[in-house]
Amino acid sequence: MLSKLYCTILVHFLFFNGLGQSQSVELVRDIAYPNWLKSEDYHTDQTSGITFVNSQSGKKTFILADDLGSLHRFVILEDSIFKFYPIHFSQSVIEYFKDFPKLDFEEIVYDSYEDKFYLSIEGNTEAYADWVGIYEIKFNVSIDTLVEIQKINFHPEEQFLKYTAWNIGYEGLSVDSRYFYLGLEGFLSGKTFTDSTVLFIADKSSKEIIKEISTRQLGIGSITGLFCDEDLSVWLLDRNNLKIFHLEFDEKLNIISSISFNFEPVIPNYTNLNYVGSYESITMDEEGNTYIVDDPWRQFFVPPENILSQLDEKTIDNFKKHIPIIDRLKIKTKGAKCGPGNKIH
Hints:
By secondary structure, this protein is mainly β. The protein contains 4 helices and 28 strands. The chain has helices at 91-97, 157-161, 305-308, 313-320, and strands at residues 6-8, 25-30, 35-36, 38-39, 42-43, 47-56, 59-66, 70-77, 81-89, 105-111, 116-121, 133-139, 145-151, 170-175, 179-184, 188-189, 192-193, 198-203, 209-214, 225-230, 233-238, 243-249, 255-262, 266-267, 270-274, 279-284, 290-294, 325-333. Strands 6-7-8-9-13-12-11-10 form an 8-stranded mixed sheet. Strands 1, 2, 3, 26, 27 and 28 form a 6-stranded antiparallel sheet that branches. A 4-stranded antiparallel sheet has the order 14-15-18-19, with no helix packed on it. It is globular and about 55 Å long.
């Protein structure tokens, strides 16, 4: 098994409301990452969602969602040996999806508190509001078939739909024991995103939206992934600014601290070389390892010739096939070892 060594990326530390004392915190990358989301001839495509399910006998199990309408069971062995298994749809699920203009899966979340799964789907066509939403889904025991799906009705509905648009929905989704956290991808101005977005918090039982937070003062430009490591503690992926944020809330759902980390997309096996990354989901395993996945931006994913000329043929082929990339990071405080359990509080 590869030893858990890490190379430091880049860090930025920030507290709001004059909270606490400054502490040195860094974001580090596992030396065995990043990697391509492939194994032999099997690979994912336009992967936009990842959620950790469990760890058993040294095997870490995840589910991946592609925004082309596919789901995969993803198993990691010995840190970086990958296995993939397609998840099929039951006939009832196929029937449920038959009128969707596009199966635009953007985020998948496992709720370990209630042993439930949720899937965020974006809406397409002029009737996007009919399709955009959060769906509760169920798998069979072996997680090889999606057997049930039901749309969740958040209310007020007009607030839930207020900022959605054609191909703009909730790319960030997470849950703790009491709340849903719904992160809008961002606001478009013409063909470009603006400098902020919104985060909704909804009561888990009633599905009522009880808090709306603008991210402008937090410096968050987009929300493309969310993960709760415990109650009132949210990790947020900002694709547009290439940052990971950690937000903590009080009991009234006010933000009491925010820490942000910059990260840099690098090429698997060529960590001295960069590429244009488009990271769209974040999750953590039971050891506190943080995983982010790249939904390749086809227009810019393949590096320019001056970079390609430094790569081997297999890596070039992976880029040209637009195979997604997964990275694994760890948050640690200064002086702490890179083992499990290093958390920020």
